[in-house]
Amino acid sequence: MSTEQTLVLVKPDGVQRALAGAVISRLEARGLRIVAMKMLRLTPEMARRHYGAHVGKAFFPGLVEFITSSPVIAMVVEGQNAVEMVRRTMGATDPLQAQPGTIRGDLGVDIGHNLVHGSDSLESAAQEIRLFFSPEEILSYERDVDRWITGP
Ligand code: DAT
Ligand code: MG
Fold first, then answer.
1. Phi, psi dihedral angles at 34 (to 5 degrees)
2. How far is the CA of 94 from the centre of ligand 1 (A)?
3. Would you say the CB of residue 92 lies under 6 angstroms from ligand 1?
4. Dist. CA 142–CA 152, nearest whole Å
5. What is the pLDDT of residues 113-122, one digit of tens each?
6. Which domains does the chain have, with CATH numbers?
7. In the annotation, is 50 catalytic?
């Protein structure tokens, strides 16, 4: 087992639909710990860096337009296997394919409006966390409940 950190965004549709609390609750309920959080509106430059892996794809311009259209809530979440834990809690990229019980499978409809972002690997998590947060914005703390989530 390994403690990891990963970047989560509640995307513009999640904020606009007032589902930020629902998204955050589901991550908290999985035992994940929020260690940094802020609300911001992405600039096109930041969006292009965040989604650099998708430059050149047909959906890229629409993706940048969408993610910059309204504020997002950015978080660093921490926990055992946090990268995979977040990805499995989000569900598949296309909400139509996402399993019921996942965030996208329960709350989403359209692939372009899938509510939430989570880093897809430890490497991209480190890169994405650096893009959104400075090291001093990321807190280190224990919760009393943690021993009930993972054991002592
Ligand atoms: P994920 O967000 O599950 O990591 P991804 O990294 O492949 O998915 O794509 C990033 C985002 O781009 C995704 O959340 C929604 C959008 N996207 C991906 N594929 C798309 C497509 N075929 N049409 C429209 N938008 C798409
Ligand atoms: Mg991705």
1. -80, 125
2. 8
3. no
4. 12
5. 999 999 999 9
6. 3-42+72-150 (3.30.70.141)
7. no
Q: What is the 3-state secondary structure (H, E, C) of 54-109?
A: HCCCCCHHHHHHHHCCCCEEEEEEEEECHHHHHHHHHCCCCCCCCCECEHHHHHCC
Atom of ligand 1 nearest to the CA of 53: 6
Look-up of token digits 């911001």? 40
**Tokens matching residue 69:** 């259209």
pTM higher than the cut 0.85: yes
What distance in Å separates the CA atoms of residue 81 and residue 42, rounded to the nearest whole number? 27
Name beta bridge partners: 39: 73
Whole-number Å distance between alpha carbons of 26 and 49: 27
Q: Which residue has the tokens 């997002």?
A: 72
In this model, does residue 1 exceed pLDDT 70? no
3-class state of residue 152 by DSSP: coil
Q: Are the C-beta atoms of residues 107 and 19 closer than 8 Å to each other?
A: yes
Number of alpha carbons in the 13 Å side-chain half-sphere of residue 103: 32
